[in-house]
């Protein structure tokens, strides 16, 4: 009986040692990953359709818009699930804005004004160009409205900017426009 107890004790010791060694091996082979700070805009995904911000970042014609979104701290908001319809002015559209005004808007002191203007280019829904109708009024994120008009087959916003292209995104749709929309004065 004494030999059986010693054998059983030795077997338990060997089993415990083997388990401890196995656990040590698996933990030493694992790598530690740290989550990057920031929001949805920091998620790296090269396989899925891009969100509206990543589409804009990938467009050489929207570098001014991307810089403005960063300055206004709106990248995270527009990287979220949406859906959003973004009326995205091209660099050429921003070139039509007085240079001194644009430079002033890109300062911290005018951040609230810049946010207001950029939010005037976004509505919370995904509206394809086919859904837009003459006389339709769209409520924009900043609380103001944009009026759609259709003339000669061209879709215009507030009679000042024309949609020149539409690009689908994972969280909405981007309508590329040839003008910068300015919210009504209050």
From TrEMBL:
Signal peptide segment: 1-24
Comp. bias intervals (Low complexity): 24-37
Record InterPro entries: Adhesion/Biosynth-related, FAS1_dom_sf, FAS1_domain
Gene3D superfamilies: FAS1 domain (2.30.180.10)
Residue span of region Disordered: 24-49
A Pfam family this chain is assigned to: Fasciclin
Top-level taxonomic group: Bacteria
SUPFAM superfamilies: FAS1 domain
Keywords: Signal
Record domain FAS1: where: 49-181
The keyword Signal belongs to this UniProt entry's keyword annotation: yes
Name used for this protein in its record: Fasciclin domain-containing protein
Originating species: Aquirufa salirivi
């Amino acid at each position: 009986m004494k030999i059986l107890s010693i054998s059983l004790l030795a077997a338990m010791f060997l089993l415990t040692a083997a388990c401890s060694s196995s656990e040590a091996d698996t933990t030493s082979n694992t790598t530690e990953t740290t989550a990057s700070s920031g929001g949805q805009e920091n998620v790296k995904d090269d396989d899925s359709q891009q969100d509206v911000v990543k589409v804009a970042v990938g467009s050489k014609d929207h570098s001014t818009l991307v810089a403005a979104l960063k300055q206004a701290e709106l990248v995270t908001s527009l990287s979220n699930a949406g859906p959003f319809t973004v009326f995205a002015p091209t660099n050429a559209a921003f070139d039509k804005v007085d240079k001194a005004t644009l430079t002033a808007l890109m300062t911290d002191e005018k951040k609230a004004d810049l946010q207001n203007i950029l939010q005037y280019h976004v509505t919370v829904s995904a509206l394809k160009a086919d859904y837009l109708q003459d006389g339709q009024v769209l409520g924009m994120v900043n609380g103001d409205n944009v009026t759609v008009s259709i003339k000669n087959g061209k879709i215009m916003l507030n009679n000042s900017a024309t949609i020149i292209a539409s690009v689908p995104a994972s969280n909405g749709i981007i309508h590329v426009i040839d003008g910068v929309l300015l919210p009504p004065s209050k």
